[in-house]
Amino acid sequence: MPIWNRRCETMDREGLEQLQLERLQATVNRAYRNVRFYHQRLEEAGVEPEDVVALGDIERLPFTTRHDLTAAYPYQMLSVPLRQIVRIHTPAGADESAVVGYTRNDLRTWSELVARVISAAGVTRHDVVQVTFGNGPLAGAFGMCQGAERVGASVVPVSAENVERQIKVLRDFRSTVLVCTAGHATHLARAMKRLGLDPSETSLRLGLFGGEPFSEDTRRTVESELGISATDNYGLGEVLGPGVSGECEHKSGLHVNEDHFLVEVVDPGSLQPVPAGQQGELVITTLSREGMPLLRYRTGALTSIDPNRCSCGRTTVRMSKVAARSDDMVTVRGVNVFPHDIEGLLLEVEGVEPHYQVIIDRNDGLDEMIVMVEVSKAIFSDRLGGLVELEERIRERFQYVLGLTPHLKLVEPMGLDRSPRGQNRIIDRRRL
């Protein structure tokens, strides 16, 4: 497979680490001088920009969390005047009080890094790339479109809602690359089977999957059902999503764009570094972001790092596929969901009690969310119309806040399990 930016992706380790150090020093200096949050945190840690003289000094820097971003809402994490910010995103999830700003140069960098990721997967200027992520709060669709355009491919953005429309576009436009979640690809394959369509009669050859974790079993199933080669890619809205890393044709780990991101893997309890190859929480420091630099951002993703050189020729480290998290977040159809977010939106609905349980399952390749929630005695014992109206209000809140529509089951007061086992608010039954 071609390497999009051979100079950067095959750089010798000594040169790469020197570049990382120079960019780390510039990033710390930018954050210290232009972002009040980092100025205060670095002073509390007793660190000044001049103290960063080696890559190992990153361990002296403070961590950044999602909570820090929401506390700085909306613009306190920006390191440039607002007039220089040309794109603003909110990372996918219920808590939209986190804001990510991009300068024009940041957007150029984003398209460059996505171009690297999709080129590693096999995309060329001769491809027709069908992007089926919903735009909405998901920045992934924008990033994938920009990266594919950078490569010179033809891009077809399609809503992820109407599967028959997607299949029609896939056939009529002769799409060769499908960009979506692995779960959605499974759903698409089964829909084609129901409609009596043979995927081998389409032009599809590649699948680029991100937005949610998937197992090797899922990969093999999708590859078999659609007749494609499927690769994984990783990114997150707070840092850059997609564009942080992606698999090459060998599918032996996701190559990290190390000239733009300094990655660490730490024990999520002690926050101390773990040895190469050992699983821990992924921590990312941006090295080139102008609008919103991030120091040691705790992603919550559990992975490991392989520093050995890949046979594809790239010299960057590889991270293993993300299959779990160090926190209680789950990803449903590309949207990050936390228990406290669900609790918050439910309690905004009059008549709902503060007791609920959510079951995440997968049906016909698509994620589905089943929400069981206790309602007040007055409403539960009222006429049926009152319960129907309450269900509608709850669905509206889920759709407005999360962009998801759950299956609802209203439960009488004290109807949910109060035992320790029942305290598990989110049960994930998917086999990812």
How confident is the prediction overall: mean pLDDT?
A: 91
Helix content: 25-40%
In DSSP terms (H or I, runs of 4 or more residues), the helix count works out at 12
Strand content: 15-25%
Structural class assignment: alpha/beta
Number of domains: 2
Q: Output the strand order for the largest sheet.
A: 4-3-5-6-7-8-9-14-13
CATH architecture of the largest domain: 3-Layer(aba) Sandwich
Report Rg.
23 Å
End-to-end Cα distance, whole Å, is 28 Å
Q: Quick one: how many beta strands?
A: 21
CATH superfamily of the largest domain: ANL, N-terminal domain
CATH topology of the largest domain: Rossmann fold
Shape: globular
Unreliable segments (pLDDT under 50, ≥5 consecutive)?
none
Sketch the major β-sheet: 9 strands, mixed
Overall CATH class of the largest domain? Alpha Beta
Question: In words, what does this structure look like?
Answer:
With 432 residues, the protein is of the alpha/beta class. It has 2 domains: 6-327, ANL, N-terminal domain (Rossmann fold, 3-Layer(aba) Sandwich), CATH 3.40.50; 338-428, ANL, C-terminal domain (GMP Synthetase, Chain A, domain 3), CATH 3.30.300. Helices cover 31% and strands 25% of the residues. It is built from 12 helices and 21 strands. The protein has helices spanning 6-9, 13-34, 36-44, 66-71, 104-121, 140-151, 163-172, 182-194, 216-226, 339-347, 377-380, 384-401, and strands at residues 85-89, 100-103, 128-131, 154-157, 177-180, 206-209, 229-236, 240-247, 254-256, 261-266, 280-286, 297-303, 305-306, 318-319, 324-325, 330-332, 335-337, 352-363, 366-375, 407-411, 426-428. The protein has a 9-stranded mixed beta sheet with strand order 4-3-5-6-7-8-9-14-13. Strands 10-11-12-15 form a 4-stranded antiparallel beta sheet. The longest helix is centred in the N-terminal third of the chain and has 22 residues, at 13-34. The two termini are 28 Å apart. The mean pLDDT is 91.
